[in-house]
Structure formats: C-alpha cells, structure tokens
Design brief:
globular, alpha/beta, Homoserine O-succinyltransferase, 10 strands, ten-stranded mixed sheet, 284 residues, Rossmann fold, 9 helices, cytoplasm, homoserine O-acetyltransferase activity
C-alpha cells in the first residue's frame, strides 16, 4: 500500500463468514479462527451452518449459541468467506443432500463476497460448479504432509513463502493440472509432486481454492488415521508425518507457519486491500 493510500484510507472491521460443513464443528472452527486471528486487522466472524439439521459430534447448544443459518445472512455482504471441507469423498456431488443449497450459496458468494476461500472438498466442488471440471477419485487416500512448490512467487497470496514448503493433505479427490490449465481465469500458485494443485486462485482474487489443510492441528492426521484403523482396518500411514514413519511416535509439525502466512496474506491482499469500504458497493 503506497503512502498516499495509507494516509487516506478508511478503516472498519472486516466481515468474514465461515460456512462450516464439517461434522465436528467446534474443532474446525477453532482451527480456522486461530489462523484468522494472526492479523492486526479487526475481523468480525459469522459462523454459518448450511441448514438446521443436527450435526454429528457437536452439541445442539453450541450450534444454537454460536451459529446462524445461511438463510439468516443471505442478504448480508461479506469481505471474505471460508467454506470448509466435508467428509463426502466418495459421493457424487448431486448425491450430497445439501448440494442444491451448496450451489445456491456458491452463486450467492459471487455477488455478496469480495473473496471466497474454498477448502478441500469445497474447493473441488466449487471448481465443478463454476467451471465444469469434475474430480477423479484416487485409488488410495492422499494422506500426509507433503512438500509443495511455489509456482508464482510474485502473487501476493504467497508473499513471504519459501520456494518449497510443507502442508497437510487428506483427500481422495483430485483434479488434474491439465484441467486447471484449461481454465484461463485460474492460476495454480502452488503444487506438489504427489497431489498436484494445492493453491489455485482466480485472476480477480475473488476465488481461492486450497485442496489441503493448512489449518490442521498437530494431531489431526493422527486422529484421522486412528479413526480409519477402527473402520477399515488397514489405512496407509500418513506420509512424512510421524517421526520415523512410526505411528507410535509423535507427529512432526512443519506446516503451521506457512498456514498462518497463507491466511494472513489472504485477509490482507485478497480481502482488505480490494474490498470496498461500503460493502453495498460490492460488484458481481
């Protein structure tokens, strides 16, 4: 930001929504709130639920006290919106019970939000909805902490990133790099050899797709691995995660700095420095 703009800017709190699609709402909201709090900007958060169905693993009292239904904020405009992943890996999009509502919200976000960040399942769902590119289902789950490489060091979303950095992945779905390259308005900003595209953004900065989980806690992959052990018996050990690749040892945590930087950059460069002071002036 240049000196003249800095001296004359109007400042107000950022309005950010989190559409939480995960069954364990409390764990997920804490992970994203931690990342959003690492900024000098004042941020007002709305925790949003897609419907009034009782979620798994989250007390009804918590939902009643801290969440609003989407219909209650449908007339509001936001500086930023985060749409979390969801455990829907093997369902066709049209078989998701709230797919119709999901498409409505994605279209709504194009009119009501300056920049929307889609995470994991939601990232692939949005690519499918907006650009018609469907994911493929991998034979084995991509699970672990992978080395990723910056593809565009000059993009503000990656400002301060090391050329190579680590981030957790936990997904079956994958969209090929060729499919991303076929969409002129999208740029692949970071990728890995094993998992392909990791961070993708539109030219106008209003759509961001993150296929991994920079928000994960140190033991998130461990909990998923233990859950998979109890349900299907022989899951693959998360790659580059446990010390000596031994699930009886502690996880190695080497992704949190870049995860924090990613969200700080998103709030600053993609949201704050582009959003209108009067959100009613937000254009489609």
């Amino acid at each position: 930001m240049d000196t003249e703009r800095a001296a004359t800017q109007d400042i107000r709190p950022m309005e950010v929504g989190i559409l939480n699609l995960m069954p364990n709402k409390m764990e997920t909201e804490e992970q994203f709130l931690r990342l959003l709090s690492n900024t000098p900007l004042q941020v007002n958060i709305d925790l949003i639920r897609i419907d009034n169905q009782a979620p798994k693993n989250t007390p009804a009292a918590h939902m009643d006290n801290f969440y609003v239904e989407f219909d209650d904020v449908a007339n509001k405009k936001y500086d930023g919106l985060i749409v979390t992943g969801a455990p829907l890996a093997h369902l066709a999009y049209q078989d998701v019970k709230y797919w119709e509502k999901m498409t409505l919200i994605m279209d709504w976000a194009r009119r009501h939000v300056q920049s929307t960040l889609f995470s994991c399942w939601a990232a692939h769902a949005a690519i499918y909805h907006f650009f018609g590119k469907n994911r493929q289902i991998r034979d084995h789950k991509l699970s672990g902490v992978y080395r990723h490489f910056v593809q565009n060091e000059h993009d503000e979303l990656l400002r301060g990133f090391d050329p190579a950095f680590y981030a957790p992945q936990s997904r079956y779905g994958e969209i090929s790099l060729a499919d991303y390259a076929s969409i002129p308005e999208l740029n692949v900003l970071a990728k890995s050899d094993e998992g392909g595209a990791y961070i993708v953004a539109s030219e106008d900065k209003r759509l961001v797709f993150v296929t991994g989980h920079p928000e994960y806690d140190p033991d998130s992959l461990k909990q998923e691995y233990q859950r998979d052990l109890s349900t299907n018996g022989q899951p693959q050990i998360p790659v580059n995660y446990f010390v000596d690749n031994d699930p009886n040892k502690d996880p190695m945590v080497n992704w949190r700095a870049h995860g924090s930087l990613l969200f700080t950059n998103w709030l600053n460069y993609y949201v704050y420095q582009n959003t209108p002071y009067d959100l009613d002036q937000l254009s489609e």
